[in-house]
UniProtKB/TrEMBL annotation:
The keyword Cell division is annotated on this UniProt entry: no
Protein name: carbonic anhydrase
Pfam families linked to this entry: Carb_anhydrase
Family assignment from sequence similarity: Belongs to the alpha-carbonic anhydrase family.
InterPro entries, per the entry: Alpha_CA_prokaryot-like, CA_dom, CA_dom_sf, Carbonic_anhydrase_a-class
Keywords attached to this entry: Lyase, Metal-binding, Zinc
Organism from which the protein derives: Duganella lactea
Reactions catalysed according to its record: hydrogencarbonate + H(+) = CO2 + H2O
Keyword Transferase: no
Residue stretches making up the Alpha-carbonic anhydrase domain: 17-239
Enzyme Commission designation: 4.2.1.1
Enzyme class: lyase
Length: 239
């Protein structure tokens, strides 16, 4: 995914109309901006959602088996978020499904909410499986201690259109120890809002300092899509 795409998830940049989080191209208008964005309005399984913890169905979910390792990475500011494109070779196995980590990026506040509460920040780790399906792991951040794993990028966050090259970054260092999670089907949270995305939201949160948050918010004060209806979906949780 090239840094110049200007869209966190763009598969086909040529078809993308300008969109934003506020103003006349905000989420309420995404479906009208481009025919390709029809799912933003019509799909019944859109993301993000609120996770009602008591309503989540306990299930023997497959473990999230992360094989992330240190390597080079590019940090890009694409006009919608700050996105990290690590070198190839990081994978996530969930049962029989294996996906390659394409990129991870951030939203403030968190797009997913838990019991109605949005966290200050979320990281979305986007994987693509051999079947072409996307599988996203969400890691919620609460305000607290300085996050050492984020420090190399959050001390030098690139401005829009700019790129920061990291010689050595291990996305695994961002992950908490406990990988139990909430699972549901959803969509991209940005146009074209394509559904069929497997979502896994980690129960354990990470911490980020007030200073680190404010560094991100200097670039993006708000880049979260509103909560979408759950409709008939069931959220499962590791038992
Ligand atoms: Zn995202």
């Amino acid at each position: 995914m090239a840094w110049s795409i200007g869209c966190a998830y763009a598969e086909n940049p040529a078809s993308h109309a300008h969109w934003s989080y506020q103003g006349s191209t905000d989420p309420a208008h995404w479906a009208d901006l481009d025919k390709a964005n029809a799912a933003c309005r019509l799909s019944q399984e859109q993301s993000p959602i609120n996770i009602d913890v008591r309503a989540a169905k306990k299930a023997p979910l497959a473990a999230l088996e992360f094989s992330y390792a240190a390597g080079t990475a590019e940090v890009i500011n694409n006009g919608h978020t700050v996105q990290v494109n690590p070198a190839a070779g990081n994978t996530l196995k969930v049962g029989e499904d294996v996906g390659h980590l394409l990129q991870f990026h951030f939203h403030t506040p968190s797009e997913e909410s838990v019991n109605g509460v949005r966290y200050p920040l979320v990281a979305h780790f986007v994987h693509k499986g051999f079947d072409g399906k996307l599988s996203v792991v969400a890691l919620l951040f609460k305000e607290g201690r300085r996050n050492q794993a984020l420090a190399p990028m959050f001390t030098a966050l690139p401005t829009e259109g700019k790129l920061l090259a990291l010689a050595n970054m291990n996305p695994g260092e961002l992950l908490p120890a406990d990988h139990s999670y909430f699972k549901f089907m959803g969509s991209l949270t940005t146009p074209p809002c394509s559904d069929g995305v497997r979502w896994q939201v980690l129960k354990q949160t990470a911490e980020i300092s007030k200073q680190q948050l404010s560094a991100f918010r200097k670039l993006y004060t708000m880049n979260a899509r509103p909560i979408q209806p759950l409709n008939s979906r069931v959220v499962e949780v590791s038992d």
